Amino acid sequence: MKRLIPLKKYSLYIAAGLMVVIIFCFFVFAGKKGDSRELSVLKGTKDIQVTLDDKQEKREKEPSSIFVEIKGAVRKPGVYTFQSDARVEEAIQKAGGFTRKADTIEINQAAKLEDSMMIYVRNEGEAERQTQTSSADASSGIEKEQGVNVNQADAAELQTINGIGPAKAEAIIAYREEHGEFLQIEDLRNISGFGEKTIERLKSQLTVK
Asked: How far apart are CA 187 and CA 16, in angstroms?
C-alpha cells in the first residue's frame, strides 16, 4: 500500500505534463495551418492579378473594330467593319472594287481608316461638273446681289421683287419695248403705279446695267 501512494502523487504531475505538451502541439499545428492558408490566399491573389494584367495587355494589343461607309463609284456601296489598323485599299476591295467609270486620282489607298469615316469615289467628270455648277451658282448669287436688271428681266423674274406683281411687271416690259431701255431706276416713275416712295423702296433690288 505504501508503494501506491507515491505513484498516485507522481501521476498528477505526469498528467499535467501531458496536457501541456498536447496544448503546445495544438497551437504549433494551428499556427502552421494558418500560415499555410495565408500563403495560399496571397498566392491566389497574385495569380488572379497576373491573369487580369495578361488579359488587359492582350486586349490592348488586339486591334479594335471600326465602321466605315464607302459610297460612289464602287460595286458594293455600304457600311463595313474593319480592324483599326486597316487601310483605304482594303475598304475599296471589301466594297467590290472600283467601277469602270471611277475617278481614282484623288483616292489615297494607302491612308489609314478611321471610325465613322466616309469614303466617296467620284465618277469620271463629276468633279468638273461640280466646279461648273459652283461657278454658275456663284454668278447667279452675284447677279442677285446686284439686283434684277429691269432692262433684261422677264415678267417672272421681275415678280421676284417684293412690291412688283404681274400688272407692274407687264407694264415695265411694255414701257421698255416702246421707249427703249431704262437709263436709271427713277425712269420707272413714268409708269403708272410707280410713285416716289415705291421707287425708293425698290431701288436696292433693281438695276439698269
From this structure: 138
